[in-house]
Amino acid sequence: MPVTDSTPQGENVDYAEIAKFEELAHRWWDPDSEFKPLHDINPLRLAYVDEGCGGLSGKRALDVGCGGGILAEALAARDAEVMGIDMGEAPLGVAKLHQLESGIRVEYRRVTVEALAEEMPAAFDVVTCMEMLEHVPDPASVIAACARLVRPGGHIFLSTLNRNPKSYLLAIVGAEYLLGMLPKGTHDYAKFIRPSEMEAWTRAAGLELVDLTGMTYNPLSRRYSLSRTLDVNYLAHARRPAET
């Protein structure tokens, strides 16, 4: 499907952050590339979303900050009707090409989540925004837009990194500089988000915070797993209250 461009000016976008991923976009679907962590955690993310929303089949889903489409295609493979949005032209181009190879149908658009919320309020059963909040100037604005996009009774799934000394050591010093799991400069520690901030922003957006679950990495087994520990990476499940 074509990638349509409906980019407004002056929105909640950090173009320096986008440029980081533009340069690597051609390697997005290489499971041994810089995007290996995304491939490794994708089954965990998908299972968390599928279970949390009561099954994706037949639901209309939006993936905010979809990049090259790893999660978007996985959602569609569970029989959801999926739209993926991003502000990076190169990742969207990669996503479009990959779906031609995979045969999995996803609609991709270049548009900010705030602009789409104005255009399509309450249009989705499920909204996901994974590994994006720590790359935008105003993450609270993204969460508020996600809340407007989901239908009453619908579900929002978010993921990000906690802000504390342990996350700095593991996610930046360890992952970027010692283990080389991510390119240096991928993350800005100041943009990491504490769970208390996540809770406050979801509440301010009129959402109910259903769950917080951590993701941990074992460097010996080189495997990720879900955990009750929120010290570094974590997932959040929020719900828009049903209308009464």
TrEMBL record:
Binding-site list for S-adenosyl-L-methionine: 45, 65, 86, 130
The keyword Phosphoprotein is annotated on this UniProt entry: no
GO biological process: methylation
Membrane-crossing segments per the record: none
GO MF: 2-polyprenyl-6-hydroxyphenol methylase activity; 3-demethylubiquinol 3-O-methyltransferase activity; polyprenyldihydroxybenzoate methyltransferase activity
UniProt entry tagged with the keyword Cell membrane: no
Primary enzyme class: transferase
Entry EC number(s): 2.1.1.222, 2.1.1.64
Function as written in the Swiss-Prot or TrEMBL entry: O-methyltransferase that catalyzes the 2 O-methylation steps in the ubiquinone biosynthetic pathway.
NCBIfam families to which the protein is assigned, alphabetical: UbiG
Name by which UniProt lists this protein: Ubiquinone biosynthesis O-methyltransferase
Organism in which the protein naturally occurs: Thioalbus denitrificans
